[in-house]
């Protein structure tokens, strides 16, 4: 497809603007590491919230989610629980406050706040750095897989070539070019650049999403959708066995469902809830989400930032996702059937953009989606170098290094991580396989240690180290071993095995070594003030400070998490019900959104005014 000069001009203008922002902000970002990685803790919480929401608009995730709606219909609203998407609710309700009270720069630095500088603390610190680097490389590979396919669809030039003996397709070369531009502006501007470009991206994407929703709403009727889909496609309620039979309409979709491994939908949902509770309570992985929390000015603003992320993200995003899915279902079947055995369902999104989006809006949407990729990618390559430079080089190699040298080494570490991530991403098989490995296997190794660190006073640095190490090794070794006996099994069903291995390693590592020093535990408990099994430490703190008020908010936080998940889910299904012509269900979903918003206003938001009274 050849884009019009108007669309190409809009895309090129946006790319030039992002480079300009990066270089313009470079002076402010290069003052010191706090300015580079956290924006000096001076960025407004609502800008960080918009940036965080924008960062979740990545192309790879959007292509994957459009495919889910296309294939699974309203039941697709449950599938992002694989991550789980509602980890943002746990963060919003209490974890953001707990994390921000540390005053740390990175998740690894936070670990020394929890476990101290002894042997266990140092080993825990090291294993978090290793996990952060592995997870960032995994996400870079995930992003590369989407951007190449996406760009090749819209730009007509054949850029296939041979580099260092490697035969690269046009899609891979496009990915290299876009990643190079993203890396340059991120290196120059740091967190300031990431947030500034992502706020701009959010505004562009919101306009584009609403426009796509309007196009779909005016172009597709409920009757057309019913005719194009099997019975049950428009029903959100999950069945134990996925009852979607595409045989008479689009037979290849049955093969897609089988290859995804989602046929036992009830079991899948139970596993997603089981995994989701542990993964969410563990808190954000040490990457871009945690960096934004640590970048806020106060703990209350960290909570507000996380809440705003959910509030502004889902309705606009699902207007676009649902819009493209229903347009493709009704109008793109011939083109997709023509692919034959080479059918690639991840191309639903770019094909729909080609056919349905008018000139001008197409350029705006492409600029927005490119910005989405660039913003999310930039956030990751801003986060990981903080661990290598601040948590390794500065801490252990050269504590007296100048700011100029630290910033220079941050550039170098970003560049090396991008190269490694590219190496994995250029040869990944599919977005779905990468998504399932990252969300289930890799996170399975993260969950156990990071749940225990919040809630159990006896859990020590050695337990954390062995739990994380056991989880990492298990996430790399167990999935291929399990598939020897159960070919085709998806990663989420392997999650409990990895979780058990990590829990056992955490438990044994803790019980076979001595507790952390009580002074370290008292400082952490008093400053963070978590709920959980902290009774010995709580007694010690209150013996020294009778005015200390321990956290008694567990029941309220648990209620707010449940209400928050319903609130978030309502924002996902409102656009889907609207675009599929289910008027009554749309009204019910809106009512649920309003009621849950009122409850959260009273039980969560109104209580934030008391949060920052605690001095940290």
TrEMBL record:
Q: What is the lineage of its organism?
A: Bacteria, Pseudomonadati, Bacteroidota, Bacteroidia, Marinilabiliales
User: What is the protein's given name?
Assistant: Na+/proline symporter
State a single Gene Ontology molecular function: L-proline transmembrane transporter activity
- Native species of this protein? Saccharicrinis carchari
Keyword check for Repeat: no
| Coiled-coil regions listed in the entry | none
Question: Where in the cell is the protein located?
Answer: Cell membrane
Key words, A-Z: Cell membrane, Ion transport, Membrane, Sodium, Sodium transport, Symport, Transmembrane, Transmembrane helix, Transport
Question: Where are the bilayer-spanning segments?
Answer: 6-25, 45-72, 78-99, 123-144, 164-187, 199-217, 264-285, 306-332, 364-388, 409-428, 434-452, 464-486, 492-513, 558-579, 585-605
Family from the record: Belongs to the sodium:solute symporter (SSF) (TC 2.A.21) family.
Membrane topology, as annotated, equals: Multi-pass membrane protein
Pfam families noted in UniProt: SSF (PF00474)
Catalyzed chemical reaction(s)? L-proline(in) + Na(+)(in) = L-proline(out) + Na(+)(out)
Q: A GO term (biological process) for this protein? A: proline transport
> Which cellular component appears as one GO term in the record?
plasma membrane
């Amino acid at each position: 497809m050849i884009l019009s000069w108007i669309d190409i001009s809009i895309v090129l203008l946006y790319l030039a603007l992002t480079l300009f922002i990066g270089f313009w902000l470079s002076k402010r970002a290069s003052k010191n590491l706090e300015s580079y990685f956290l924006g000096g803790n001076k960025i407004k919480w609502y800008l960080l919230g918009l940036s965080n929401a924008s960062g979740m608009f990545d192309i790879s995730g959007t292509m994957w989610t459009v495919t889910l709606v296309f294939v699974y219909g309203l039941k697709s609203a449950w599938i992002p629980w694989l991550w789980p998407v509602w980890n943002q609710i746990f963060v919003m309700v209490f974890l953001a406050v707990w994390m921000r009270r540390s005053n740390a720069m990175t998740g690894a630095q936070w670990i020394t706040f929890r476990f101290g500088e002894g042997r266990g603390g140092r080993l825990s610190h090291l294993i978090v750095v290793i996990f952060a680097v592995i997870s960032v490389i995994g996400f870079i590979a995930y992003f590369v897989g989407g951007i190449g396919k996406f760009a090749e669809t819209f730009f007509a030039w054949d850029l296939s070539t041979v580099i260092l003996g490697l035969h690269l397709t046009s899609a891979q070369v496009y990915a290299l070019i876009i990643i190079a531009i993203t890396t340059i502006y991120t290196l120059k501007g740091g967190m300031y650049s990431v947030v500034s470009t992502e706020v701009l991206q959010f505004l562009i994407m919101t306009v584009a999403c609403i426009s796509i929703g309007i196009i779909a709403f005016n172009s597709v009727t409920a009757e057309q959708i019913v005719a194009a889909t099997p019975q049950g496609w428009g029903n959100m309620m999950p069945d134990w066995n996925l009852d979607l039979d595409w045989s008479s309409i689009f037979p290849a979709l049955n093969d897609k469902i089988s290859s995804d491994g989602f046929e036992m939908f009830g079991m899948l949902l139970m596993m997603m809830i089981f995994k989701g509770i542990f993964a969410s309570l563990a808190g954000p992985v040490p990457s871009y989400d945690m960096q934004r929390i640590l970048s806020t000015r106060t703990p209350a603003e960290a909570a507000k930032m996380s809440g705003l992320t959910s509030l502004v993200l889902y309705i606009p995003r699902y207007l676009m996702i649902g819009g493209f899915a229903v347009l493709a279902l009704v109008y793109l079947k011939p083109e997709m059937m023509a692919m034959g055995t080479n059918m690639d369902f991840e191309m639903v999104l770019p094909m729909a953009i080609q056919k349905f989006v008018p000139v001008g809006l197409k350029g705006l949407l492409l600029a927005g989606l490119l910005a989405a990729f660039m913003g999310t990618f930039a956030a990751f390559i801003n986060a990981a170098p903080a661990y290598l430079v601040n948590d390794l080089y500065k801490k252990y190699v050269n504590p007296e290094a100048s700011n100029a040298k630290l910033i220079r080494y941050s550039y170098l570490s970003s560049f090396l991580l991008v190269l490694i991530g590219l190496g994995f991403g250029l040869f990944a098989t599919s977005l779905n396989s990468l998504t399932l490995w990252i969300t289930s296997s890799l996170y399975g190794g993260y969950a156990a240690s990071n749940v225990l660190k919040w809630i159990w006073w006896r859990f020590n640095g050695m337990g954390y180290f062995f739990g994380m190490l056991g989880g990492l090794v298990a996430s790399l070794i167990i999935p291929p071993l399990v598939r020897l006996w159960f070919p085709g099994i998806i990663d989420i069903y392997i999650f409990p095995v990895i979780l058990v291995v990590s829990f056992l390693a955490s438990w044994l590592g803790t019980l076979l070594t001595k507790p952390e020093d009580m002074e370290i535990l008292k400082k952490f408990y008093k400053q963070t003030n978590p709920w959980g099994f902290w009774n010995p430490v709580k007694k010690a703190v209150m013996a020294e400070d009778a005015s200390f008020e321990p956290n008694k908010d567990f029941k309220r936080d648990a209620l707010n998490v449940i209400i928050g998940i319903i609130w978030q889910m309502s924002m996902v299904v409102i656009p889907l019900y609207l675009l599929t012509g289910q008027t009554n269900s749309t009204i019910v979903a809106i009512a649920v959104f309003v009621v849950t918003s009122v409850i959260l206003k009273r039980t969560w938001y109104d209580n934030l005014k008391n949060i920052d009274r605690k001095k940290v």
